[in-house]
Amino acid sequence: MGQRIGIFGGTFDPIHVGHLVAAVNAKHALALDRVVLVVANVPWQKAGIRAVTGAEDRFALVEAAVGGVPGLEAGRQEIDRGGESYTADTLQEMSDAHPDSELFVLVGWDVAGELATWERIEDVKRLATLVIVNRPGAGRPRGLDGDGWRVEEVTVPNLEISSTDLRARAVDGRPLDYLVPEAAVHFIRARGLYAGGR
Ligand SMILES: Nc1ncnc2c1ncn2[C@@H]1O[C@H](COP(=O)(O)OP(=O)(O)OP(=O)(O)O)[C@@H](O)[C@H]1O
Ligand SMILES: O=C(O)c1ccc[n+]([C@@H]2O[C@H](COP(=O)([O-])O)[C@@H](O)[C@H]2O)c1
């Protein structure tokens, strides 16, 4: 029998425990075999607005962060494909690679409210069940049910953590410890990431 695979895409600039707690709880709630944290190569909706850390560094952070947690893994499909990252392409690639599997695409409330802006959203709808997790600071999106989506909602611990705040903390010299897994904090220090002018 094919696997139930969660695809949790993100810019992960940097990854934080909000992402990881959402991933493991969605995995548990929906009995997924694994959740792949797919690192966006060029997150086209963010890249025009701010400088995004290099994809290989963001991937290394995700790899360090998932560590030995069973069933969580870092995905480099979008990096290997190159160019701008579209979830529709990633799902098609996963579907082709694992034709027997059932795919689930995980998003937080903030991203769930923006789905209409995604490239080829009808393909995303066709290829995967949408899994929506709560996130502080965003409202629960409405109207997805009647819109052709297969939807699952999973309630996860509310963690008011964002990569934006973490980048600001790093520039100010405030600690990232415990908000970002230790191995990823080590990588950030070793590579001098997010350190602003210091
Ligand atoms: N604290 C959180 N709780 C639940 N889901 C989250 C949380 N933070 C991020 N997510 C979800 O993780 C996915 C990837 O998010 P992303 O990498 O853009 O992180 P972010 O913290 O939102 O970054 P930024 O602050 O730079 O926009 C999105 O679906 C987002 O909704
Ligand atoms: O496919 C798209 O057009 C698309 C547009 C915006 C965001 N996404 C995906 O949604 C996920 C979260 O995006 P972001 O920019 O909030 O990190 C990440 O996997 C992105 O690739 C996908």
What features would you highlight for this structure?
198 residues, alpha/beta, Rossmann fold, six-stranded parallel β-sheet, 38% helix, binds adenosine-5'-triphosphate, binds nicotinate mononucleotide, Rossmann-like_a/b/a_fold, Probable nicotinate-nucleotide adenylyltransferase, NadD/NMNAT, EC 2.7.7.18, nicotinate-nucleotide adenylyltransferase activity
Describe this structure in words.
By secondary structure, this protein is an alpha/beta fold. The chain has one domain: 3-Layer(aba) Sandwich (Rossmann fold). 38% of the residues lie in helices and 17% in strands. The protein is built from nine helices and six strands, in the order βαβααβααβααββαα. Strands 3-2-1-4-5-6 form a six-stranded parallel beta sheet, sandwiched between helices. Strand 1, helix 1 and strand 2 form a beta-alpha-beta unit. The longest helix is centred in the first third of the chain and has 13 residues. The N and C termini lie far apart (53 Å). The mean pLDDT is 95. Nicotinate mononucleotide binds next to strand 1, helix 2 and helix 5. The site of nicotinate mononucleotide has 15 residues, from strand 1, helix 2 and helix 5. This is Probable nicotinate-nucleotide adenylyltransferase. It catalyses: nicotinate beta-D-ribonucleotide + ATP + H(+) = deamido-NAD(+) + diphosphate.
